[in-house]
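Troubleshooting: if your tokenizer reports a length mismatch, compare your output against this known-good record of 304 residues.
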Amino acid sequence: MAEAERELVTIRDWMRFCVSCFRGCDVHIGHGTRDPFAEASALVLQTLNLEWSADEEILSARLLPSERAAIAETLRKRVNDRTPLAYLLNLAYFNGLPFYVDERVLVPRSPIAELIQDRFLPWLKDEPQRILDLCTGSGCIAIACAKEFPDAVVDASDLSLDALSVAAINVEHHDLQERVGLLESDVFSKLPGQRYDLIVSNPPYVDAEDMADLPEEFLREPEMGLASGADGLDITKRILAEAADYLTEDGVLVVEVGNSQWALEQTFPDVPFVWVEFERGGKGVFVLTAADCREHQAVFEASI
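Known-good structure output:
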């Protein structure tokens, strides 16, 4: 690394060097992008306080020794410690919005962002007035929903007080204190009598087998936000069992279960889950109407 600090002088030099280090050290790229060039660009540009959209001509700009040292230190932690870049920068983007993140929350990366941009069409018939984000973590889904639906009130709940502390930072940063409420709740336990037009959740859904094989970068994230029992469905089953009691008549439930999609379909073969097809990648997100939740509630309740 000392040689790099001496010899690499431009932004472009450091981007290339980062990619070489990622590949040479078998660094896992998977928090928001799978492209080592994109990760290298983020590491260098954001360490320099530059925007993603910086003009390409700036890539030839020469760096000060102090700037090279700062990039080298960030790269050293990313490669040697396997710390996700978002934690090193305390910054991640979701739905085009910036969010503060640290080791208390998962790094935002849900394909639900695409659903938010599409305003949950065609499933939402009317503009939602009340939205619930279960297992909110950093608050990114709740805040993105509040931005997309400016007339809606959003509740964001999580069992982790640490996560809610991070979410509070983001709610304040986006000036949404009047519209996004943060609640400590174990799924629906602290929400009695509430009804929502939209319930959306990216809960823990990693099964025991996948937890045992996670790359080191993912082990830096809070286990509480990842692990969900042997089949990855412990939390999802609880959401399904109670969702009908918290949805409005024409409400919609949207839940991400990732690689646990197969297990969910095997567990509830008669439930008409609608699996979203994403244009920009991602899988394992289902949609259920309130009517479907009510029709199958007994089956859901029997599973927990």
